[in-house]
Write a structure and sequence with these properties.
Layout lengths: L2 E5 L2 E4 L4 E8 L7 E7 L6 E6 L6 E3 L7 E6 L4 E6 L8 E8 L16 E2 L3 E6 L1
Parallel strand pairs: 2-11
Antiparallel strand pairs: 1-3, 3-8, 4-5, 4-9, 5-6, 7-8, 9-10, 9-11
């Protein structure tokens, strides 16, 4: 059984940084596309970032480009989301997800292409 566990969320002031981690168990992450999504209160879940199996390709939502960086350590079966220059509008529950799709395309920005999800970690950015 595949399990994803996010950690690293918390309360931070605007302009600050956080690093989220997603530990994967039950499946090797080395062949899996990984994604980060977020959901703010009253909003739909939205795509944040995705990274392919090797870590050499990635996609980002426009609003986080230049501020967030997705990376992975396949040896540790872990994916990371480094978030810098945080803004109050980044406040949300952040979820990591794993996709078994063999190709890495813009379709991986869609939540429907992910098979496994974590429980989420809260990120709150105060102004």
């Amino acid at each position: 059984q595949v399990q994803l566990a996010e950690s690293g969320g918390g309360l931070v002031q605007a302009g600050g940084s956080l690093r989220l981690s997603c530990a994967v168990s039950g499946r090797t992450v080395s062949s899996t596309t990984m994604g980060w999504f977020r959901q703010a209160p009253g909003q739909e879940r939205e795509f944040v970032a995705a990274i392919n199996w090797s870590g050499r390709s990635s996609y980002y939502q426009d609003s986080v480009k230049g501020r967030f960086t997705v990376s992975r350590d396949n040896g540790k079966n872990t994916v990371y989301l480094e978030m810098d220059s945080l803004k109050p509008q980044d406040t949300a529950v952040y979820y990591c997800a794993a996709s078994t799709r063999t190709s890495f395309t813009l379709l991986n920005t869609r939540a429907s292409t992910y098979n496994y999800w974590g429980q989420g970690t809260q990120v709150t950015v105060s102004s």
